[in-house]
Amino acid sequence: MVTLTSQPDGQPGEVPRNRRQEETFRKVLAAGMETLRESPTRI
Question: Positions of the region Disordered (predicted)?
């Protein structure tokens, strides 16, 4: 794990929150791709 300590005026919870948002986005994106893959209709 990498810790950034050189951010002036940085909020302590900013990096973990962004990481959770990215993980959630990837999960949702993967689920959406899987749904499109299983869908009988193609665009």
Answer: 1-24
CA angle 21, 30, 11 (to 5 degrees): 10
pLDDT of 38 reads 86
Q: Are 3 and 14 in contact, with CB atoms under 8 Å apart?
A: no
- Rounded to whole angstroms, how far apart are CA atoms 38 and 43? 13
Burial of 15 (0-12, 13-18, 19+ CB in 10 A): middle
Q: Which two tokens stand for residue 9?
A: 């005026």
- The pair of structure tokens assigned to 35 is 């749904």
